[in-house]
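Bumping with the actual sequence this time:
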Amino acid sequence: MWTRRWAGVPRGVRIVVAAAVCVFVYGAVVHLVDVFGGRADLPPSTPNWLALYFVSLTVLDPAAALLLVLRRVEGLVLGCVVLTTDAAANAYANYLLDDAGGVTPGRIGQAVISMLAIALAMAAPRVAPWLGGDGAQRREHDRRNRPASNSR
């Protein structure tokens, strides 16, 4: 099923999607362990909306991964939104709520998530035309980017 679904997709696009899927699966596991494994080390001053957002990532991360595996452009959009908002939420938690000075593991993690968000957003225009089960988007992309012919 995987090979048939991804037949004809450039290797670079498959690599970007596979890397993004791995990031979202890893994120889902981390957030599940945080929520259900007792490692939720949010300070008592953490706003409820922020705690709820981090819990929601237990659903949003695997949803983005699954949609990407299924070649749905919605997975790419959701992935970009999840990584961007996760970076912002971690920045809020690590710079505004955490009064520790200097470099902390949380701040390093926030920087990594920010870089992943930027990387996926930069790759999105190249990846998006190849997502979609019927190939219509790819065909439209190919039609628009076809060199002009010299026919009279």
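The tokens above came from a reply further down the thread. The longest helix spans residues 11-36.
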